[in-house]
Amino acid sequence: MPRRKVLLAGGLAAGLVVAMAAQGAPALANGRPAPAKHVLLLSADGMHQADLTWYVRQHPHSALAALVHTGRDYTNASTTFPSDSFPGMVAQLTGADPGTSGVYYDDTFNHALLPAGTTDCGTAATGAEVALTEAADRSQNPITLDAGQGIPSSALGGLPTNSLAQTLAAKRALTAAILRMTPKPAALLSPAALPVDPSTCTAVVPHQYIRTNTVFEVAKQAGLRTAWSDKHPAYEILNGPSGSGVDDLFTPEINSVADAAGDDWTTDNALTAEYDSFKVAAVVNEIRGYDHSGMKRVGTPAILGMNLQTVSTAQKLPASDGLQGGYTAAGTPGPLLQRALAFVNGEVSRMVTAIHERHLQGTTTIVLSAKHGQSPIDPAALRRVDDAAIIDAIDAGWASGHPGTKPLVTFSVDDDVMLLWLSDRSTAARSYASHFLLSHSAPANRITDAKGTTSTTVASSGLTRVLTGKDADRFVGARAGDPHAPDLIGLVRYGVVYTGGVKKIAEHGGDATADRHVPLVVSGAGVRHGSVRGAVETTQIAPTILALLGLDPRSLKAVRIDHTAVLAGVIRH
After folding, report:
1. pTM for the predicted model, two decimal places
2. Which of residues 467, 482, 504 is at a domain's end?
3. In terms of C-beta density within 10 A (0-12 exposed, 13-18 middle, 19 or more buried), how is residue 263 classed?
4. 411 has which bridge partners?
5. Distance between CA 461 and CA 436 in Å, rounded?
6. Do both 68 and 100 map to the same domain?
7. 569 within 8 A of 547, measured Cβ to Cβ
8. Are 105 and 242 part of one and the same domain?
9. Residue range of the domain that includes 84
10. Neighbour-count burial of 175, counting CB atoms closer than 10 A to its CB (0-12 exposed, 13-18 middle, 19+ buried)
């Protein structure tokens, strides 16, 4: 970004701390004005606190630096566990840990539901995959950017394989096309792909799966407008149990065909940046007082925001666009990740500029965080392990002692964490699985240089600890017997990534510092300045959003159950 532009961005962000009294902020019950009228929440998925610190140090006049320097910078913030996108975003917008929200990952299993497509609910056995991913979209083979809405394919043809050579006019045309997506993405989900409720024999829509209400629902009850943008239509879950929390929900499908080679938007980092720019365009329209399409004037929402994926793919891809992905041996962002961080800074500047142009800087607060981090940061620690082979070995060992029984592992989620749902939930079965994992030595490969890998092994299936029963429930805050919760939780050795291939160098989901230590900055209207070193959690974002808007944080069910607190010292009185 040109220096002139960066300096402008910094000045704009600094302007967010202007006193709000003259802007007509809503009044609290005690007669004092609410700190803000608008809260913009941004999640830069994969970003670590260390990444933000490095970028601000290298670019002291950037938009990100301005947010940090003029706001409340919580330098010891942690995501929930599992540190996945779905529970991570739910946590920020409900205040709930997974055990309270019932949301443990984007693709899980539920012991109490029936499989997708079940019609004879009286005799069917319970137990179903809950795939709240691109697998739930109406469009399949191929999956399309509009998730099956029916926007003409000529408009959604994607970018050429070399997206950097695409003309500005063509990019604008693609953005204009996808901005025509519905603000009600539940219509883009296929009921045949969703699990079935045995009591009603109907498909369970994502918002029916979550157990806790969202900040959007609380704002709607107060007569305020809401908007959000995310990466799958299944993020309809953020509507909350009412099904109507978000007025304008924009969800272009990230795992869709993006170019002539058939790649999706995550397989090339430049494509990911193009994808993120669609959502930023939607948010800019909303800041300017329109719906996400930019066609209908509706007023700037009280709560709005989005997630950005570009940092995440720059961390996971070994290389892209001729640049090395991930980190250097010293833990410094490598060339691709540096470019991704600069991209995020530019998009933040773009949104801040829109705030300034609408003269909303005195009544808008920006919250910057991340749904999850990514591990490992040290490339020498990386060990890729084939989790499918481990699961097969567990099932084979169980079958040898229990002929004729079902495979023991009904469902697994293995990124840099291992979550297992078992067909036999007895103490004996859990003990067997735990003992097997901790006594099994698994093949692995590691990077030896820029050109190749070498074979090695990892002890204990790559795990440091296995939790089952009450220990597992306690670790995720689940009630005993929760049908949503995994039966076994495996915490991995730092650097282990479960994958059958060698296409990624990092993952998330686990409990390592690199998975969970993310930025948390609150900057703008009504916010006290300063750096806070004490430990905080991203669940605290939700009640803080409500407090900034002058709404009661205890309106959130999770605040009452988990005792989630407003971030200390954030609001200037």
Report:
1. 0.92
2. 504
3. middle
4. 421
5. 9
6. yes
7. no
8. yes
9. 1-378+511-573
10. middle
